[in-house]
Amino acid sequence: MSQVFEGYERQYCEVSANLTRKCSAAALLKGEQKKQKVSEIKNGLENAEALIRKMDLEARTLQPNVKAVVLAKLREYKNDLNNLKSEVKRLSETDSQAARDSLLESGMADALLTSSDQRGRLLTSTERLNQSTDRVKQSRRTMQETEDIGVSILEDLHQQRQALLHADNTVSDIPFIIL
User: Longest Cα pair distance anywhere in the chain, in angstroms?
Assistant: First the structure.
């Protein structure tokens, strides 16, 4: 085996053992301490993943007869890492569930008061929305009336233009007898 792979392997084993100890310790903690410990564990998981990627790259450069053995070890390490990830996820979920439960318990006392406040705000918002809708409809009616007036004016101007052109043609056809 490669010296480099063995170095990565030693580092991974140390990190993995450390993460396992931290998971056991985090299971006994509560609240903010537990969150901090889980955050530390997640950072350690990232380091472990980086080591596994390095081992994987190194294993792929080895000779075929050694490569099979090393890749089998690597699969074992990946399974170990996945188990650690599952444990961290479980720790995070139990902490989240406890926080959710405490929020629900404290929230039930104020639920009725909050509900009436929300209802009042909702009614006010609905009234404002209806007023805005009415203003938009009135604006559209005004716009349509203005457009209709504009079209009427353009039609009148067109008719006047036609009358002026007809008068001009008629005047130009008359011989200049009146002089």
Answer: 124
Q: What are phi and psi for residue 175, nearest 5 degrees?
A: -70, 150
70 near 59, Cβ under 8 Å? yes
> If DSSP states are collapsed to H, E and C, what string results for 45-109?
HHHHHHHHHHHHHHHHCCCHHHHHHHHHHHHHHHHHHHHHHHHHHHHHHHHHHHHHHHHHHHHHH
Q: What angle do CA 5, 62, 12 make, to 5 degrees?
A: 20
Pull the structure tokens for residue 108. 């039930």
Separation of alpha carbons 14 and 7, rounded Å: 11
Query: What is the model's pLDDT at position 136?
Result: 95
CA distance 43 to 10: 18
89-146 residue pLDDT tens: 887 776 566 666 655 665 555 566 667 778 888 989 999 999 999 999 999 999 999 9
Task: Look at the pTM and tell me if it is higher than 0.70.
Answer: no
Closest CA to 74 of 9, 2, 3: 9
